[in-house]
Amino acid sequence: MTSKLCGAGIIGIGSFAPKTVLTNADIEKIVDTSDEWIVTRTGIRERHIIGEERLAVSDLGIEAANRAMASAGITPEDIDLVVCATITGDMPFPATACLIQDKIGAKNAAAFDLSAGCSGWAYALATGSQFVQTGMYKHVLVVGVDALSKFVDWTDRATCVLFGDAAGAAVLAPVEPGTGVLSTYLGADGGGAESLKIEAGGSRCGTSEETLKNGLHFIHMEGREVYKFAVRIMAEASIKVMEQCGITHDDVDLFVPHQANTRIIYAAAERLEIPTEKVFVNAQNYGNTSAASIPLALDEAYQAGRIKEGDVIVVVGFGAGLTWGSGVIKWTMPSIG
Ligand code: ACO
Fold first, then answer.
1. Runs of H (alpha helix) within 44-172
2. Nearest to 225 by CA among 196, 262, 265
3. Is residue 336 part of a domain?
4. What CATH number is attached to the domain comprising 206?
5. Shortest-distance atom of ligand 1 to CA 33
6. pTM for the whole thing?
7. Within 10 Å of residue 199's Cβ, how many Cβ atoms?
8. What is the pLDDT of residues 135-149, one digit of tens each?
9. DSSP, res 14
10. What's the CA-to-centroid distance between 221 and ligand 1, angstroms?
11. Are residues 237 and 318 in contact, defined by beta-carbon separation less than 8 angstroms?
């Protein structure tokens, strides 16, 4: 959708990753893999995981939310809505957004979770910005957080090397029309649901001795299928969202894609004709952090001075569902450095 109402933009951003770092060398001791295989196929060198810290995703989300509010210069009472994109909530219910809302003291805020896999934060950006654009809310906190290290089978080398845990958050608020979130684009193909899923623990297949024995509470992924889908959809969703607001690849200052795999990222950038120096990549340090990936990358890029006020940023994600989502943001926060 393209904004025709008042502007909505990011006025504060923050992120958080747990301190335990698992390198490829560490993983070599757990499963039959090698640093060379992981780096060549994925670009990932290390990832942060909750490990022994006994944290849950709400704890990561709270840290990122506090940093985003500090960066925006607002108080918790100023927040009208908390949207939390996650597929690894603390519990099936209540919503992790409610746990975050309570712990940060956002007592005036409504709160709900949103499930769109690794596209979650793109979905949350589209959802949250519309509450601001319509004038319903002034400050919307959009959190993306996941801890997939808790859901991978640490004996399955095809998946355990890919994921890391983290949170990212942004505060959305009214900005000048023609700036902020210029357009968003979302899509889904439920026909691809089987290629990326956790089968057990829901209403179709509750947890039982048998599901535990068969490992159905772990991530199941058809990597090749997801790979092909990802390269195609990252490019298509980026083109669509740029067309919606009348820009081309030449207008893009920084491309900030979901950080699943650097091969997927560079293949998509090539299709989009976006040069490597305009692509932000931090997958090497975090792995695939699912819904946290895009806001974590945006925050790092901003803190590193890679995003200046007025820059045009394209974000795009893909994930379980299958889902995809993209956005064009004309950056409204003051330049750093
Ligand atoms: N170390 C060593 N060998 C491995 C490993 C490993 N960690 N994992 C798999 N292999 C082996 C396989 O067993 C296979 O061996 P074989 O040929 O003897 O059978 C060989 O490597 C090739 O396996 P593929 O799965 O075909 O490898 P591929 O080149 O496709 O790379 C990868 C695998 C990295 C998973 C890739 O398919 C990919 O990135 N897919 C997309 C994943 C993704 O982006 N997921 C997003 C999740 S989003 C969300 O919502 C959670």
1. 57-72, 96-104, 120-133, 157-160
2. 196
3. no
4. 3.40.47.10
5. 1
6. 0.95
7. 16
8. 999 999 999 999 999
9. E
10. 9
11. yes
